[in-house]
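Per your request, structure below.
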């Protein structure tokens, strides 16, 4: 069973950092749209002159957290990968943002930060595949929310409630093929990422990443990792797990990005 903890996030973020240093703004633009939508929610409104406290629980390099900070939220951010957090702190400091960041396992948030947040934001929840692991993660998120707070997540759509296998098949047939994802060059170093997908199960595509690394005066070397594209948790399958984890109301909102594309944002509420 593939789990998000087994992903070599250190290798992934090492080369994502290398790539994004070449064009950082291009990676920041779309992050603002979903964060801006949070401000329209009741949980995203200031209360008694005080901004909501949001946890970006899948912060990576911190782009969502920085966008949320610019929108006036009080923000904290966490991730499993120390390399990603280190770079996120550098980016935040360069922008003059004092955003608390910490390394954390999602399952433990209810114990380390009980009832602390108005919103827990997570755009990688779909990476968790085993049901019991997802249940433990959701309980951790719920425990970190104050009563009335909400978990914000993506990749499920109430308008297409049972489309996990169809979505995986469509992506497999139309999007995912052996391909060069990017080539980046800097200071005598060239890195080429090729992605080789594998349809493992009807709701699981595993992408095998191959990084060809070329440095001046050295033979080409290769680094590899895999990343799961998990389509198991469509609306019909994730809502019962949310309910078992203790969440009450679950809602699906649609919003339109600045580029005119429609997306869904899901909200699960801690009601007591």
């Amino acid at each position: 069973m593939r789990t998000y903890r087994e992903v070599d996030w250190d290798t992934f973020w090492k080369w994502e950092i290398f790539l994004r240093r070449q064009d950082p703004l291009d990676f920041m633009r779309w992050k603002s749209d979903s964060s801006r939508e949070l401000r329209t929610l009741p949980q995203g409104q200031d209360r008694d002159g005080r901004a909501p406290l949001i946890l970006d629980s899948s912060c990576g390099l911190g782009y969502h957290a920085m966008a949320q900070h610019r929108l006036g939220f009080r923000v904290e951010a966490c991730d499993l990968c120390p390399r990603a957090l280190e770079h996120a702190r550098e980016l935040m400091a360069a922008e003059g943002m004092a955003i608390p960041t910490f390394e954390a396992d999602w399952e433990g948030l209810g114990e380390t930060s009980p009832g602390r947040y108005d919103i827990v934001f997570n755009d990688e929840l779909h990476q968790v595949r085993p049901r019991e692991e997802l249940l433990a993660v959701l309980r951790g998120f719920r425990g970190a929310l104050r009563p009335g707070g909400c978990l914000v997540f993506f990749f499920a759509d109430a308008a297409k409630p049972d489309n996990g296998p169809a979505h995986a098949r469509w992506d497999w047939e139309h999007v995912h093929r052996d391909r060069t994802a990017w080539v980046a060059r800097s200071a005598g170093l060239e890195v080429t990422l090729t992605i080789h997908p594998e349809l493992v199960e009807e709701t699981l595509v595993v992408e095998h990443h191959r990084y060809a690394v070329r440095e001046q005066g050295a033979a080409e070397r290769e680094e590899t990792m895999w990343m799961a594209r998990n389509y198991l948790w469509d609306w019909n399958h994730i809502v019962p797990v949310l309910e078992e984890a203790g969440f009450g109301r679950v809602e699906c909102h649609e919003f339109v990005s600045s580029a005119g594309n429609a997306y869904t944002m899901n909200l699960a509420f801690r009601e007591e």
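The two ends are 34 Å apart (CA to CA).

Regards,
D.
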